[in-house]
Each structure stands twice: as C-alpha cells, then as structure tokens.
C-alpha cells in the first residue's frame, strides 16, 4: 500500500473509511472521492475511523467539511470514531462536533448505526 492509499471496508450496509496517519489535502481528496463513491452506490451510513490519524491539517479539515455536507445532502449519517484527545479537541474548537456524530470506537459507531436503522425500519 502506498502512503496515500485510503483503506476502506463495507459491513452491514455501512462504509468505513480509515484516513491513515496524516489527513492532508491529498488524503482528504481521496477520502472525499471514496465517500462520494459510497454515496453513489447507495450507502447512507459512513464511519470515518481516526484510530491511526495523528495529525489533521487545515486543508484536511476543509475537505472533511465538504464530506459532511455531501453526506448530509444525501440524507446520510456520518460518524467519526476513535478520535484522539487532540483531534477531538480540534473538532470541538472548530465547532464540528455539532454537525457530526462521534463514537469512542468503530464498534460503538456501527452499533449506533444499526440501532438507528432498526428504529427506522419500525
């Protein structure tokens, strides 16, 4: 895997994206492309797992805002998981926490999305 490749996985109707160690312009654009690809395929639940992400630059944040908007426009749900303390604080300072759901772990995010889907089916 090269250093700009974005890992993903699909599970139970949810697309999970792993940004990698540094969310910059190049990686952000690849994440944006992956999200759009998943939305075009009909996925409406997307989790971005930041477990390996140590640093997010301003362009990465800007692109993430576009991802949030794209998912919201598609009537989808974007959840972030595994945020480090510093990344969580960054999102809080920038006011992003009111626009996205956050779970401590990927498993918790998937469980919350499954519960939402179950309730919507009722």
Structure write-up:
The protein is an alpha/beta fold and 122 residues long. The chain is built from 4 helices and 7 strands. It has a 5-stranded mixed beta sheet with strand order 1-2-4-6-7, sandwiched between helices. Strands 3-5 form a two-stranded parallel ribbon. A hairpin with a 2-residue loop joins β1 and β2 (14-18). The termini are far apart.
Stretches where pLDDT falls below 50 for ≥5 residues?
Answer: none
Write down the Rg.
13 Å
Order of helices and strands: EEEHEEHEHEH
Quaternary form:
single chain
Fraction in helix: 40-55%
Major sheet summary line: 5 strands, mixed
Question: Given the C-alpha coordinates, what overall shape results?
Answer: globular
How many E-type strands? 7
Distance between the termini: 42 Å
Strand order of the largest sheet: 1-2-4-6-7
Number of helices: 4
What key attributes describe this structure?
two-stranded parallel sheet; 122 residues; 47% helix; alpha/beta; 5-stranded mixed sheet
